[in-house]
Amino acid sequence: MINYIVLQKVAQLPRHVPRISDEPLDVFGSTENIIVYVVIPVLIIILYIVWRRRKRREKNK
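Below the sequence we write its predicted structure tokens.
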């Protein structure tokens, strides 16, 4: 039974894909990470909200 479980585990490991490390993503470690993971998503959300409000105002006129 244990051999079966071990074989299943080994069969599921991808061989050509890099291994995932257990370290968390260091978002605030560099300026590029802050821009990519914080600033750009916030800008996208703000622009979407502004766009929807303008669209709603044009529809009401």
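Residues 31 and 38 are 10 Å apart (CA to CA).
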